[in-house]
Amino acid sequence: MKKAYFLSILIAIFRLSFAQEATKTTIQIDLNKKVGEMSTMWAWFGADEPNYAYMKDGKKLLTELSQLSPVPVYFRAHNMLTSGHDTLTMKWGSTNVYTEDANGKPIYDWTVVDKIFDTYRERGIKPVAQFSFMPEALSIKPQPYEHKWKPGMPYNEIYKGWTFPPKDYKKWADLVYAWVKHSVERYGKAEVETWYWELWNEPNIGYWSGTVEEYCKLYDYTADAAKRALPTIRIGGPETTGPSWSKAADFLKTFLTHCESGTNYVTGKVGSPLDFITFHAKGAPKIVDGHVQMNVGTQLRDISEGFRIVTSYAKFKNLPIIIGESDPEGCAACGMKTNPSNAYRNGTMYSSYTAASFARKYALADYFKANLLGAVSWSFEFENQPYFYGFRDLATNGIDKPVLNVFRMYGMMSGNRVEVKGNQNYTFTMVRDSSVRKKADIDALASKDQRSAAVMVWHYHDDDLKAEDATVEIDLRGFPAQQVNFKHYRIDNENSNSYEVWKKMGSPENPTAEQISILEKAGQLALLTSPSYLKLTNGTLKLNFKLPRQGVSLLRFDW
């Protein structure tokens, strides 16, 4: 009896040990095997509301974005040419650049545009300068012009007179020429040459009330005028919505074919100048059985199809690609109270989604040999709104959200991306084709520079449900040193998470000065453990740790 009892105990221990070993995710990293450049394609951001840039919280966030990136951040904004003076309406903005006198003579006023770009430049940020939208005095159907949209209203309520083609293409071209010329005079030729200039936003849906042919015509007039003002300017388009949607793909291909072999509406020659190509990619969260279920696969399929289309053009396959908006879904200004499926935005689900999806953007670009220059996170901030209302933003009332700390992590990764292998549950094609619906996605992205290495590890799942912590083993090799300084940064419910701290305070609508100070500190990227020196064995190192569901770790090594 005793022998049988002890044997059963041993079998139980073995089974438990085996089960734990089987659920462990082992990630093997070879720092000597380069797979690509650790580009800073993540250091791109944007917003519908250009005027927020020079407001209190806008300035603060722009400063933080600049500080977290080792290279200049690029910022893309709509409404740079929109008429009017209202700067606080969501999904709106205005500069009143263009008006006409009683005789129809153009009047240019660069005051507000300069204020926006000066704010960028003071922080070392560079604009993706957008020729949008149609000034009221130029629109073929100007009234009604300004929308009155608010969260919860139908999205198509925003499409008004600013979406229409110009009544005079020459006057539009003159406006383009004047803006570029003014920018060169104000900021210098060398500076403006580093910017990216583009025409419009999502012209295949309501943002453009003309035809695809009229968009191509407007592009020709825009590119010709911009190149006359500055021959070395970088201009591109068309910023269409997700290419996995057939109508969006058709618009993108029509535009590219026009630029490749169509008759130019201005010069009459073949083709149009094109320096970079843009399209958008969005996910599709929904409520399932009372919880948020993300769909990272939908966003990755947009990117995959966009890369496939662009690289199918021999003339354009090597051009830089900017994913002009690359997000978990489509409406930054739709808060979680009016759109419950957006309840992922305040907590760690947004940060783990961001870590997992950006890693797959690198992989898709490698797969298609696409020249991915930037992936714009269409998330900034909304001025004078309730704390943690659930907008798709990086900060709320000057308090950084967990997602911003993922970009701080990316800012500590440099050099080359290196090989990551192991017993992970998903390849990048599996995530693209099926999203993350069964087992969790526990994986890593690793980089190595001359005197540092970094490993970002995430524990992501599309379903916002509680689960057991993941057991992760990191097996590194290829260190050119005998000792490294090690730092472990973490984003989870207990670390780098202002939202959880705010909830523990009782979710105050008007935090005190002391509470704001605590929240600001909680919004910064935090170390999980104190820095330490680790000795290596033949350039190898093994680390084990637990990673909560929707958590993200960054392991940083310096020597």
TrEMBL record:
> Which SUPFAM superfamilies does this one have?
(Trans)glycosidases (SSF51445), Glycosyl hydrolase domain (SSF51011)
| Presence of the UniProt keyword ATP-binding in the record | no
| The keyword Hydrolase is assigned to this record | yes
What GO molecular function terms would the record report?
hydrolase activity
Q: Where is the signal peptide?
A: 1-19
Alphabetically sorted, this entry's keywords are: Glycosidase, Hydrolase, Signal
Matching InterPro entries: GH, GH39_cat, Glyco_hydro_39, Glycosyl_Hydrolase_39
Q: Which domain of life is it from?
A: Bacteria
Q: Which residues form the Glycosyl hydrolases family 39 N-terminal catalytic domain?
A: 27-522
Q: Which Pfam families match?
A: Glyco_hydro_39 (PF01229)
What family classification does the UniProt entry report for this protein? Belongs to the glycosyl hydrolase 39 family.
Descriptive protein name: Glycoside hydrolase family 39
